[in-house]
Amino acid sequence: MCNVPGVHPDATPPTTDDLSRMLGQVLGDTAQPSVLSPVKVQSVATEVADRLMTAVAIGDYLPGERLPGERELATILDVSRATVREAIGRLQAVGIVEIKRGRTGGAYVRASWTEATASAVRRTLLPRWPELEQLFDLRCLVEGLVARTAALRRTDEDLAAMRVALDGYAQARTLGQEQVADAAFHGAVLAATGNPKISALSRDMLTRVSLGFPVEPYGEDDPEDYQRALIEHRKIYEAIAAGDAEQAGSLAEEHFTLTSDMMRAMLERAQERAAR
């Protein structure tokens, strides 16, 4: 279940009006939170490199995958292309990416973790952790809203798209295939809401918990996490297909704790490296 830090789990849950106010604050918030704010430190390239290493460590980008291009990264992080170029060079120097030339060239992820990763993860996540905990909780509430709405509005076409994505996830043989199928399933659930504003809110929350990168953190290849996600996807689908809005919402709220659990484990791993 989603829990607000500092609030007892038996406390009265937010009312519809409370949730509406929370969503309104997110939608109307023109000031970006620290996880998305422009990089402003003594060494901008160091901060960019740290954030990119952390994004790779938490599975925003997987081994073998191409990072976004310089122009896109500069836009995401609100820095210059020269700064991005310097940061990518640092990732190359520590063995996290390799640079390929040609039409399909770019920076390709070689490894999720190297000797330099733990320090970068600590520097990136520790200062942001209190806010990330709040964002994890809010994201669960938002995804519960998404699933409840989908259960009330889904069409036969929506359900068919969910089934295709479920089949893709069940047949996935690599972490990359899992990530693609996972995104397809949740995209189909979002489409079933029939409300672009709800979809935009969900994607905004994803970007915020992913350090500004618009992809789901996916951690490392873990058979237990895969089986848990597969089972939960099926249960969410069954609740939506049955039109059981409350069950769908509760299941979705629980399902999206996978992200916070994974990122917490990555931070603990980085801290353990420091203690050695």
From TrEMBL:
HTH gntR-type domain ranges (all copies): 42-112
A GO term for molecular function: DNA-binding transcription factor activity
InterPro entries tied to this protein: GntR_C, TF_FadR/GntR_C, Tscrpt_reg_HTH_GntR, WH-like_DNA-bd_sf, WH_DNA-bd_sf
One Pfam assignment: GntR
Keyword vocabulary terms for this entry: DNA-binding, Transcription, Transcription regulation
Record's protein name: Transcriptional regulator, GntR family
Lineage: Bacteria, Bacillati, Actinomycetota, Actinomycetes, Streptosporangiales
